[in-house]
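Slide 14.
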Amino acid sequence: MDRKALAEFLRRRREDLQPGDLGLPPGVRRRAPGLRREEVASLAAMSTDYYTRLEQQRGPQPSVQMLTSLARALRLSDDERDYLFRTAGHGVPQAVTAAEHVAPALLRVLDRLDDTPALILSNLGETLVQNRLAEALLGRRTGFTGLRRYEVYRWFTNPADRLVYTPEHRDRQGRALVSGLRVVFGAMGPSSRAGELVRALTKESDEFRDLWERHEVVKRFADHKTIVQPQIGEIELDCQALFTEDQSQCLLVFTAPPRTEAAEKLALLGVVGASSVGEVAEEGGRGAF
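Slide 15: predicted structure.
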């Protein structure tokens, strides 16, 4: 681990970013260029003290997960991400870790979407990052560990995850998740993370096993959905996706036609905020797409 190089790189990248680049308010009394340390720490889901120690060359060696979060928070390119890992003593990220690195182009779009729910998903359905309104709508969908990081796993192992849909739409959503997993499984093979998901769910869920044996294959993201939000109730939304060139990640955006009841509910969602919804997600997990 090259502490000096790591510290200087983090500081330079932090100073190069402006609040507006990440959809943050400019604030007042900024005595230094770029983002504040506490802003980077918040974006990377770590304590300000921990991040400060890294910039001061006295922090512990960051874990792979922590470096992935930092790369995302600082909007690093693939080359910059690899450099970050090397200076921290971890070498070039493995394929699984690299896949979790959010495409900078998608992040730039997400940063500018402050009036509609939006999130970035991996091809396996892991929520890599979500904006404030997406958290208010769907609950906090980041921060899970192990196989619970993937929506399809939570769907078939945690009944509370289905509450985001009305009962009449849950069967259709379950089939869509299994079908989407089969598409990725076909591309990645049985020895991949997709194969690990299939093996685990086949053991743990009779419902998944029955759906998997149907061999349905379809990749569906654009859709019209009715989402159940605890404070506001049912909201009818259009769901559209923007994919990276290699189809490994997508930006999912929920919108409503202007001057409709759904549009009014989305505006109310911004007032309600995500605090109580986030508590629900921590207790049981929510959300689907």
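Speaker note: The chain has two domains: 3-99, 104-284.
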